[in-house]
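Predict structure. Chain length: 204.
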Amino acid sequence: MTRTLDPYKYLQRLTGLGIRMDLGAVRGAFAALGNPAGSYPSVLVGGTNGKGSTVAFIEAIARAHGWKVGAYTSPHLLRYNERVRIDGVDAEDEALVAGFAAVEAARGDTLLTYFEYGTLCALWLFARASLDLVVLEVGLGGRLDAVNIVDADVAVITTVAITATSASTMFTASSRPPRPTSSTTRPSDARANSHSAHRVPHSR
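Prediction complete.
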């Protein structure tokens, strides 16, 4: 019987880079992979706290209306597969390994980080799943996080902690402002924090 490679171990073998606050390399690899964003609408979720719950809520609401949804979140609890869900089901080992292999073949001489490999793999899988909606959780990079290679239709910003205000990592869905934007911040919170409105969030 053929044993399937563990996707987490396989990914660790591919990359030695840490966090990179730049989108140039991952955009190049994304283009080489064929820009696998698909024609489906997409939602990006950023902020400090509550991102995972917000992704789960959006995913559940859309699926309750009969939509086929892809969700990309981080980190995972037990298995890497939890990061990529298609129609409510974690991605299979075989699918993830195939996605990583596709990214590895397409990247050429471009070095990628762990998260960049994972993001490209997820988008590659989503493009092959005939989805109605994709929901992407922003990782550590804020506006320079790898998920921002996707020009999202909607950006959701959850609560933002005062400790997460570095200007170099503010959240944005793309180089232009996202179209509709939703926020979980209450009006009273906005007034209380108006003195720091010029500051920008750093995602976990």
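Summary: The CA atoms of residues 50 and 158 lie 6 Å apart.
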